[in-house]
């Protein structure tokens, strides 16, 4: 057995904590604007989010609704009563000396999401809780000084915590991808990790099969400040091996916080971890318990969009779209909406056996995605909504192909021009003179001129040399500048060569 195989007897177990900034207009407990990205430091602040004495918090209703909406989409039970609690600790970016969070009575509990794995199987990852809290400010280290910017302080933050159900780096990656898709569908979070709008902290431990059989877990290590799903995956893979080596060498894993060094591709020690008692949680005296009535939950449930799994199943079952395409079309809500609108405009009657939805899918995942990839450095499929091409225009383009007004190659050129200014395809075809010639009198005249100019070839063909047909076909297509409808040219050529 190799060293790595030896270590693989240790199973990795991961519980994920995700912090997602909610897309509300104002902060969690005050009326400061949340639109602080790029603003000068400390310009989006007020006595409440600065933590000045006597300032009182007021609960942001939109943040509570976004949390309930997310809880419902994650199949959680919504608590009848949720209680805000103070989490006490001292840090320069936390002016009050405590963070308002939820502890014993969170808003959402006991949910799950179905995660699609690379091998085609799926797995249910349980959600332990999802609760509301406020974000901290930011420390900026600058030339020997540390400056504090409190624009972010008090931003509404949704914390989602899973059970320790994740058992591989790939599962973690798939879970985060699915969660981000759902949050974006709901419109509650941008999912932009590079802007810190979504932050992931895996709790990673390893255990042997014997420990697993006894229901035991190893000591967990929390990795902080990961800024991409890829680095989450790498950090888990790294910790799995590191912890297994420590145990193989007879040591014990310490409960610590680690950071991730992207350049070195390894975890690095941060500080020893506080246990939850260190935070001395207690109910927030300045806020009443949050009482959630069933009619409110029902009203929020009614605003839920059709979620990705349901959409994907519908594309497959009702429209015959291939699984691989249905997957990618539902990966961002902007793409799914574009697809559905294009199908609606293109296929007025979609029945079984109609391949129109699949053809629309092919054009989106092929040509349109190629345009997006060519335009931007980041491969963000949401950019489909930024292209000047509207779904109905794509449908119009496909109809031009169906009606044999243009061929496929021309259609691809037309699409590229549509992407520039959003012109209608028929306008472009007209202006460029790209319509296929399917007028038989035009084609016949072209063929006759070629037959007259090439009497030798005509004689060879008529005396049985059939391969000369290709010569005439090529000449005719050239004479019609490639815009002769090939089927029709072939048919007319066959007739005229026979002398009909
Ligand atoms: Zn404020």
Blueprint (SSEs and pairs):
Layout (H helix, E strand, L loop, with lengths): L2 H5 L2 E12 L25 H4 L10 H13 L3 E2 L2 E2 L1 E5 L9 E5 L5 E9 L5 E13 L3 E5 L2 E5 L6 E7 L6 H18 L11 E11 H5 L7 E3 L5 H20 L7 E6 L4 E7 L9 E2 L6 E2 L2 H8 L6 H12 L3 H7 L3 H14 L9 H20 L15 H12 L5 H14 L3 H8 L7 H14 L1 H8 L5 H12 L6 H12 L3
Parallel strand pairs: 12-13
Antiparallel strand pairs: 1-10, 1-11, 2-6, 3-16, 4-5, 4-15, 6-7, 7-10, 8-9, 11-12, 13-14
Helix pairs in contact: 4-6, 8-9, 9-11, 10-11, 10-12, 12-13, 15-17, 15-18, 17-18
The chain binds zinc ion (ZN).
Mean pLDDT over all positions: 91
Report strand %. 15-25%
Task: Tell me the domain tally.
Answer: 3
Structural class from helices and strands? alpha+beta
What is bound: which ligands? zinc ion
Query: Helical segment tally?
Result: 18
Principal-axis shape equals elongated
Largest sheet: 9 strands, mixed
Give the uncertain stretches in residue-range form.
Answer: none
Straight-line N-to-C gap:
80 Å
| Sheet with the most strands: spatial strand order | 2-6-7-10-1-11-12-13-14
The oligomeric state of the chains shown is single chain
Radius of gyration: 31 Å
Strand segment count: 16
As a percent range, the share of helical residues equals 40-55%
């Amino acid at each position: 057995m190799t060293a790595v195989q030896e270590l693989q007897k240790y199973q990795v177990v991961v519980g994920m904590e995700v912090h997602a900034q909610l897309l509300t207009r104002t902060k969690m407990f005050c009326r400061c604007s949340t639109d602080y990205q790029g603003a000068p430091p400390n310009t989006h602040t007020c006595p409440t989010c600065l933590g000045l004495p006597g300032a009182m918090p007021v609960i942001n209703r939109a943040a509570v609704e976004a949390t309930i909406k997310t809880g419902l989409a994650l199949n959680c039970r919504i608590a009848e009563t949720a209680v805000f609690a103070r989490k006490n600790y001292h840090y320069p970016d936390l002016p009050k000396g405590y963070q308002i969070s939820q502890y014993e009575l969170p808003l959402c509990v006991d949910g799950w999401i179905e995660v699609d794995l690379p091998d085609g199987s799926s797995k249910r990852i349980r959600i332990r809780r999802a609760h509301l809290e406020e974000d901290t400010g930011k420390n900026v280290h600058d030339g020997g000084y540390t400056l504090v910017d409190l624009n972010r302080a008090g931003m509404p933050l949704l914390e989602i915590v899973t059970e320790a159900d994740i058992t591989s780096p790939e599962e973690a990656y798939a879970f985060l991808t699915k969660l981000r898709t759902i949050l974006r569908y709901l419109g509650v979070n941008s999912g932009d990790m590079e802007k810190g709008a979504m932050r992931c902290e895996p709790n990673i431990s390893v255990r042997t099969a014997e420990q697993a059989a006894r229901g035991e877990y190893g000591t967990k290590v929390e990795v902080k400040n990961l800024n991409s799903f890829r680095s989450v995956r790498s950090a888990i893979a790294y910790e799995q091996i590191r912890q297994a080596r420590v145990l193989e060498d007879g040591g014990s894993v310490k409960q610590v916080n680690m950071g991730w060094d992207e350049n070195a591709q390894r975890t690095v020690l941060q500080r020893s971890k506080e246990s939850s008692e260190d935070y001395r949680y207690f109910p927030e005296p300045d806020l009443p318990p949050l009482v959630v009535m069933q009619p409110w939950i029902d009203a929020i449930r009614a605003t839920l969009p059709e979620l990705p799994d349901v959409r994907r199943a519908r594309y497959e079952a009702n429209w015959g779209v291939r699984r691989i395409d249905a997957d990618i079309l539902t990966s961002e809500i902007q793409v799914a909406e574009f697809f559905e609108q294009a199908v609606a405009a293109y296929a007025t009657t979609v029945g079984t056996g109609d391949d129109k939805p699949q053809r629309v899918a092919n054009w989106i995942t092929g040509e349109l995605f190629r345009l997006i990839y060519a335009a931007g450095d980041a491969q963000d499929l949401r950019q489909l909504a930024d292209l000047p091409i509207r779904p109905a225009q794509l449908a119009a383009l496909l109809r031009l192909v169906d009606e044999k007004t243009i061929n496929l190659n021309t259609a691809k050129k037309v699409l590229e021009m549509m992407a520039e200014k959003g012109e209608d395809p028929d306008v472009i075809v007209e202006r460029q003179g790209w319509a296929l010639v399917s007028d038989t009198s035009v084609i016949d005249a072209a063929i006759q001129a070629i037959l007259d100019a090439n009497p030798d070839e005509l004689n060879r063909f008529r005396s049985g040399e059939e391969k000369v047909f290709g010569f005439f076909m090529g000449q005719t297509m050239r004479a019609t500048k490639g815009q002769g409808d090939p089927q029709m040219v072939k048919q007319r050529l066959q007739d005229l060569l026979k002398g009909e």
